[in-house]
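Exercise 7. Predict the joint structure of the components listed below.
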Amino acid sequence: MSINFDESKKIFHLTTSHSSYQFKIDKYGFLLHLYYGKRTEQLADFVLTYIDRGFSGNPYDAGNDRTYSLDVLPQEFPVTGTGDYRNTALLIENAMGCTGCDLRYQSHCIRKGKYSLKGLPAVYASESEAETLEIILRDSVLDLEVTLLYGVLEDYDVITRSAIVKNRDKQTIYIHKASSACLDFVNGKYDVISFYGRHTMERNVERTHIGHHTYEIGSRRGTSSHHYNPMLIVTEEDATEDAGNCYAMSFVYSGGFEASAEMDQMEQTRVLMGLQPEQLHYALKQDDEFIVPEVILSYSAQGLNQLSYHLQKTIRQHVCRGIYQTKIRPVLVNSWEASYYNIDGNHLCELAKQAVELGIDMLVMDDGWFGKRDDDNSGLGDWVVNEEKLGMTLSELIARVNAYGVKFGIWIEPEMVSEDSNLYRLHPDWAMAIPGRNPVRGRNQLVLDFSRKEVVDAVYNQISQILDSNHIEYIKWDMNRSILDVYSHSAENQGNVLYDYVLGLYDFLERLHVNYPQILIEGCSGGGGRFDAGMLYYTPQIWCSDNTDAIDRLYIQYGTSFGYPISAVGSHVSASPNHQTGRIVSLETRGIVAMSGTFGYELDLTELTESEKKIIKEQVKRYKELAPLILDGRYYRLSNPRQDKVTAWQYISEDQNEILLYAVQTELHSNMAPIYIQFRGLKHGAVYKDTDSGICYAADILMEVGLPLLPELQEYQSYQMHLIIQKERF
Ligand code: GLA
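Solution:
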């Protein structure tokens, strides 16, 4: 049993292989958090302290006891209204405009399996892999019920959390803030690591000390965004890649979010993750329910590499779905950086012909194939093949591509509309715009109101017609602007629209998942602008960034690896000089960087020289051989690209018998000291053999001293090494 309830002490104890999570129902019915950390069999109720603190109020039930205050006690689901003046998880407004609620324990149940959330993505697991704890809390004055949900995946060291708010009263209530999880630490000094960025430079890593302030990140863009990823890591001050306590919170949601961390007056730390509150003003009518999306929590006592391993494994095996979940994805060539909007059928066929010679499995026709779409100013919303531009029908094109033995995929951007489109001329009110105001344009396009079912249906019907009449095996689902001017013609309450928009998006994606199970869907939002665990439930891979520069990708993919599996990272080799940075990088190095994900090419294959073709053929072959190790092996970050002169990373098979090392030298100076790469996670005492050179290496020396890399007279030199276990003992 991974969920236990101690009746006498009223303590819930959730355990995973290496962690314990405890909280109790106290004498007033409040849930007080006790402990999250290294696994223990003991109960932690003695960590609570009761001391009279000035200006920290006491609940009425406590009578004259001034030592009991929710302003300083650690809590499981803190709400505004019970005397807690810190950041809280829930803020409710009643029909009179009064804020606050008071939730007390009512009942609980423990069951096998993992709960699911209606209309929202969530971690899934079988009855033997997970347990669920459901706790019902109630505010008797508001007649409001909140169900706290906990899912425990013991072997994954993961606990998930979510909450469902139900209004039983006839008066409508308004939800202004809703977080899925709160972590309260009564003691300790912590850092927080966030993943900030911008278009074409996503998920940079920033580590900040949590002091006496509110540290806050989030997105008001209606999507999880390029700017802050919906994932937060909290570490002890001295935690490193290999040691120390650290905690992750990963939001399984693709809309706006907010994560905060603060140290309170008593040096206690509180961390919250949930929905973006400024844009939430959710009207909940009698008997309606509001589901707060899920957060994945994980704990590691062995530093960040271990924490990433938990998240990567959980997302790959218990969030991603479909036939491609664990399959090696096709190596593809995408037309975008090859020809941008200037696509035509014959040229695409030439690409396919070249692709098959190189061993590439799939051709993806990116933007430009539909409606009037010669640039980004028109056409979105008209999902009708532009046969004139292609010079043939789509079926003819696909038949020709398939005849070469190459699969075919297309790009779509269903959530958007161009003002210059038939859809917009017919239904201007389907685009988001506030009455009486001109909307803000982004990439000269407007956002369709996906909170309306008829809008989702109409676009779905257009897209499904294309899918039904053509042999399409892959879709790239794009989304190329931030949302603003939130207004829906059909909404009674505009505060519901952004949340309902995300439900509409998930509904569309779920229909594709169910009705077209054979199609591989790649998520994309101007690259990695919606790279989150929510999207990964529907699209097992996401185009990691519109930046295909191999050196910039080292930083982007390094940051991404903290929370997401390698199999989720869409990564392609593009032309040199690179189109985004102008940087010149060798084809070998571009290949190594792109191989750390779902591999492909994004350049005009018909312009390759003979020697480039030779290298690419070799790369594709090598990727296909190594893909099981890259995608299923355990991934380790071996250096920090912002601090070290070499960016190195390693894959090791679960049985520790096979290793792949990749490294790229990012700094080059005259007369440099040798750089040693220290391997991780090898079998102690074993000997590994380099499959290229035949040289044998002692595992412990590779881990203790490391392997010296010798700089050559070439910028961005890359290194790769494939090792197989030779002997278990030296
Ligand atoms: C976005 C994507 C690109 C490409 C273009 C097409 O920017 O991230 O990969 O598909 O749109 O317009």
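Discussion. The mean pLDDT is 98.
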